[in-house]
Design goal:
423 residues, alpha/beta, 6-stranded parallel β-sheet, 6-stranded mixed β-sheet, 20 strands, 24% strand
Amino acid sequence: MLVKLPWLTGEISVEIPDRNLAEVLSPNKYPPLADLEAATNAALEAPIGLTAIKTWAKSGQKVLIVSDDNTRMTPVARLLPPLVRRLNEAGVPDGDITVLMALGTHRYMTDEEMIQKVGPEMFSRLTVINHLWKDEANLADLGSTDSGIPLKVNKLLVESDVVIGIGAVVPHHIPGFSGGAKIIQPGVCGPVTTAETHLLSCRGGGDSLLGQIDNPVRRDLDEMGRRVGLSAIINVVLTPEGEPVGVFFGHYREAFQTAVELAKKIYGVKYTVKPDIVLSNSHPCDLDFWQAHKSQYPAQIMVKPGGTIILATPCPEGISPVHTDLKNFTHYGSQEIQDKYRSGELKNGVAVALATAWAMVREKASVITYSTGLSDEEITALGHTRAESLNWAVEEALRRQGGEAKISVLTHAPDMLPIWAGE
C-alpha cells in the first residue's frame, strides 16, 4: 500500500507491504467554526469560572497578555482584537497593555514574526515583546513550588495587575495537554524552572504523561499560574490544519479542562493493534527536532517493548538552533544524562530534560529517522539510525522485527493521543 504523509507544504509517500500494514491513524475530522470572531465574542461574554472582564480589569491597571509563539498555530491575530476591545471598554488604554511572547526557551522571534503572530494593527497599537529568557536580570525569583521546583518568571508578570494567557490545547508529553497554565511554564519562565519541570515528567521512567489530564506536572503548572496571578486564559482547540473548532475563555483551570474534552474528540485516536513498528510523522511540528520530538511519544505509547519507531521529519533548522550542545550528550542513556546533570558535568538543564525523555523512548524501542534537514551527524547524535529514504526505513524495521511484523502509521503524530481500543 502507498501511504501519503503531509510534509512541509506538500507530501511524501512510503510503500508498506499489505501483510504488514496494521493501521493508518490520523486525528479525527471535526467541523471548523463557521465564524471565529463570533465564537470568540461569545466566549468572552460568558467566561468559564470567572466574572466578566469589566469586573476585574480597571483603569490604571497594567495588563499583560501572554501569547504562544510562532511554533504554534494559535490564531492570536484574530483573538486579540475582541479581547483588547473589552479591555479598552473596561477602561484600560492600549498604552497599558503589553503582549509578551511565551518563547519558553525557543529562539527569539523577529519583528516580522511577531507582526504575523499578533497582526499589524495590534503590533502598532500595543507593546509586543519577546520573553528574554536568556537574561537573568529579566526574571523574578518567586522561591519554589510545593514540589521543590525553583520558580523564576519574567518580571513583567509580578509587575502587572492583570495577566491573560492565549494558547491552544493539544495532547502534550510533559503536562498531559498543552493549554491552561502551560502558557506560564515553560512559556515565560527561566530555564532552570523549565528544566526541573521537564525532569519532573521523567520521574519513574516508563512512557510519557501524554494525555493524562491530572499528573504531577499539571499540578505544578496550576500552582505556578496561581502564584504569578494568572487572571484568565483564552484557549482554542484546532484541527491539525490549524482551523479553530472551539474557543474557551475563563479561569485557567476550568476553561482549560473544558477545552480538553473537545481536544480529546479530535486528537484521541483509538488503535486496535499493538504494533511492532510505528511510523510516526512529525507534521505539523516540522521546524526543528526541538519541536519534532513530540512525534515520538504517541509512538512510544503504542509500540511493543523492543519494537522499532520510524520518525519522518523535515527539521530544516536541525536539532535546535538554540540548544546546540544537545548533540554532545543526547545519545547517552536516560539515567546517565540525569546523573551528569546533577553532578554538574552538564549545564543546560532544559536540554538535559528533553534528552532524558528522548533516551527513554530509545530504551523502549530502537529509532530509525528519515529527515531532509537533519545531518547524518545529528541523527547519529540523537542515537538514531539514519534512513536514506522512508522505504528503506520500512525495510530496515522489518529486518529488525521480522517479516510478519505489524506496522502502524501516525500521519500527524505530535497532535495525536493513541487510546487502546480495549480501554
